[in-house]
Amino acid sequence: MILDKKFENLFLNVTSRAALAAAYLIGKKDKIAADKAAVDAMRKELNKINMNGRIVIGEGELDEAPMLHIGENVGTKNGPLLDIAVDPLEGTNFVANNLPGALSVITVANKSNLFNAPETYMNKISANCSEPNVVDLDYSIKKNIYNLAEFKNQKPESLTACILNRPRHKKIIDELKSLNVKLRLISDGDVAGALMVIDKKYSVDIFLGIGGGPEGVLAAAALDAYNCHFQGRFIFDTDKDKHRANKMGITDLKKKYELNEIVSGDSIFCATGITSGDMVSGIEIKENKFLSETLITHKSSGLKKIFKKEQTI
C-alpha cells in the first residue's frame, strides 16, 4: 500500500519542530534536557496527525522511556495503521557541545513493514551499489573493498570508507589502512554515517562497522529510496539481549538482514538538521520564525531531496 503524499509535509514538520526544540539547548552542556525537548516536541506533533501510529523504534521500552517508547500508540487514532521509527535527537553530545551533525530523524511505513529492532548493537554495511554480491557482511574487508573498487571502476586507494571511531573498530581501521583506503572517522552520528554513501558529493563509498541497531533501521528507508545497498546483523551478547530479541519474535540471533527485510513496501524518511553538518544545515532562528533543512525521501513518489522550510515559531 502506498503512503499518501500528504504525509511528506506532515512528517517533515514533525522532525523540524523536534529539531527546533533541541536547538534552544545547543551548547548548553545538557544532553538529557536537549533530548527531552526533542522527544516532547516530536510526540506532540505526531499526536496531531490523522493516523493510527505505533512506535516500533523509539526511546526504549516502557520501563526505560516515559514517552515515544516502543509500542506506544501515537496519532489521532483516525487514519491508516503506520509503523514509526524515531530518533528525536541523534547526536545528543553534538547539541550539548555545539558540534556539527545533530539530527532529528523519523522513518514511517505501513503496519508490519518496518523491522521492530531491539536496543542493541548491529554490525552493518552500506554502499551506493544496487547489484547483489558486491559488498556483503560475510565478505572480508579486503574482498568488499576490491569488489567495490571493481564495481566503480576505481582503484581501492581511491575509495573512502566511513566508520565510527571506536576502539572496537581498531582491527577494521588497521586493515583499511593497509589497503590504502581513505578513512572518514566519525565520533557519533550513526544514521548520518550510513547515509553518506547516497551521493557523490559526500565522498564516501562504503560505511561499515558496529553501531546502533535502531539507527540501522532508521537509515534503511533512505538508503532504499536511493537504491543503495544495506545489510545488518544484530549482536546479542547478553542473556537480557537474547531474551528481549525472543520477545520481539527474533528466533535466529545470527541472521543477516537484507534491506528489504528491514523496511518493506513504501516508506517516508525525514532527517532535519539541528546543528549544521555535511548533509543538512542546522536550525536558524530569526525572531518569530525559524529555517530548517531536511533530507526527505518517499520511495513510491520518487521524492529524495534536501528541503528548506521557513516556519513561524
List strands and helices in order, with pairings.
Layout: H1 6-23, H2 31-46, E1 52-57, E2 73-74, E3 81-90, H3 92-96, E4 103-110, E5 121-127, H4 141-151, E6 160-164, H5 170-178, E7 182-186, H6 190-195, E8 206-212, H7 213-225, E9 229-235, H8 239-247, E10 257-258, H9 259-262, E11 267-273, E12 284-286, E13 289-298, E14 303-312
Parallel strand pairs: 1-3, 6-7, 6-8
Antiparallel strand pairs: 1-2, 3-4, 4-11, 5-8, 5-9, 9-10, 11-13, 12-13, 13-14
Helix pairs in contact: 1-2
Describe the structure.
29% of the residues lie in helices and 28% in strands. By secondary structure, the protein is of the alpha+beta class. The protein folds into two domains: 6-114 and 266-312, Fructose-1,6-Bisphosphatase, subunit A, domain 1 (Fructose-1,6-Bisphosphatase, Chain A, domain 1, 2-Layer Sandwich); 121-262, D-Maltodextrin-Binding Protein, domain 2 (3-Layer(aba) Sandwich). The strands form two sheets. Strands 1, 2, 3, 4, 11, 12, 13 and 14 form an eight-stranded mixed sheet that branches. It has a six-stranded mixed sheet with strand order 7-6-8-5-9-10, with helices on both faces. β6 (160-164), α5 and β7 form a beta-alpha-beta unit. α1 (6-23) runs antiparallel to α2. The protein starts with 5 loop residues before the first helix and ends with a strand.
